[in-house]
Design goal:
- Helix content is about 70%, strand content about 0%.
- It is an all-alpha fold and about 290 residues long.
- α10 (about 185-195) runs antiparallel to α11.
- The longest helix has 29 residues, at about 235-265.
């Protein structure tokens, strides 16, 4: 495999890692960068290229598992919940939460709506929505939702920590997450917006978003691999590996940075960026 091909995989991995956990749509950015400059479909064909864009998200998933490893161990019942545990991002001891703690059942409740729709419409999404034009729609509409959340969400925060999330909030966030099936809408953008509108702090909504991301992204990647296994060839393997490693490293760095900032900067700056990006790409690409 040529060095230029590996470099393209690394670039796409960087784009995925830097944008997966910011509410700007990693899939949308990868599609735009690929369609406008890298042209991976010309190297391996549409289905292999689309599978690559899904599979390298596994690198980002691994970054979430590394950062929230104690949380996942607790959710699986392998470790007792402790309020004295340090925050995985700030490495400071969090304030004591009221009531219990986040349960696996709450995560599953949040996963069901988008999981069911994803299985039902996966083929349609792969065939019709992986294009720059559809991404631009998702970027703008998703930005509008984020602006609404910041400007019109409840003034009084009811849920400061992920451990205070209710089942009703988990289901509400899960329903809003269905919008993220449209490339460009952004999983984190939709779910954080939904969480804020339901009375959660931006950080609590972000933590819940990233914890939910692991099973749903892993499931999407596995489903894509199973359905497109014939396109996963040994010739393409170095391309996938380079993208995976690149996505993992940059997701690890960007997620910590994002979680430290989200309660301060909120969603509005990201919404403005999305609208500007959509406008620039529209005039350049079309």
């Amino acid at each position: 495999m040529e060095l230029l091909t590996i470099i393209k995989a690394i670039i796409l991995g960087i784009v995925e890692g830097l944008t997966e956990f910011a509410p700007v749509s990693s899939t949308g950015h990868m599609i735009i960068v690929d369609d406008m400059w890298l042209k991976s479909t010309e190297l391996f064909g549409q289905y292999t290229a689309n599978t690559f864009k899904v599979v390298i998200q596994l690198g980002s998933i691994l970054a979430v598992v590394v950062i929230f490893r104690n949380r996942f161990i607790e959710l699986l019942g392998l470790k007792r919940f402790s309020r004295k545990q340090l925050d995985p991002v700030t490495e400071e001891q969090p304030q004591l939460e009221k009531g219990g703690h986040l349960k696996l059942a709450q995560v599953l409740v949040g996963l069901v709506p988008a999981g069911m729709l994803g299985v039902l419409f996966n083929d349609y999404i792969d065939e019709h929505l992986f294009s720059t034009s559809t991404v631009l729609i998702g970027l703008v509409v998703g930005a509008v939702l984020m602006i609404i959340a910041d400007l019109f969400g409840p003034k009084k925060i009811q849920t400061e920590s992920v451990d205070q999330i209710t089942y009703k909030q988990a289901l509400g966030v899960g329903l809003v997450q269905c919008f993220s099936l449209w490339p460009g809408f952004s999983r984190s953008g939709s779910t954080i917006s939904g969480g804020v509108l339901l009375g959660m702090s931006h950080r609590a909504a972000a933590d819940f978003t990233f914890i939910m991301a692991v099973p749903i992204m892993a499931g999407a990647s596995l489903l894509s691999l199973m359905k497109n296994w014939q396109y996963f060839t040994m010739d393409a393997l170095p391309f996938f590996i380079a993208g995976f490693i690149s996505a993992f490293v940059f997701a690890l760095l960007s997620m910590r940075f994002f979680l430290k900032l989200i309660n301060r900067i909120k969603l509005l700056p990201f919404a403005i960026y999305r609208i500007i990006l959509a406008a620039v790409v529209y005039f350049v690409f079309f």
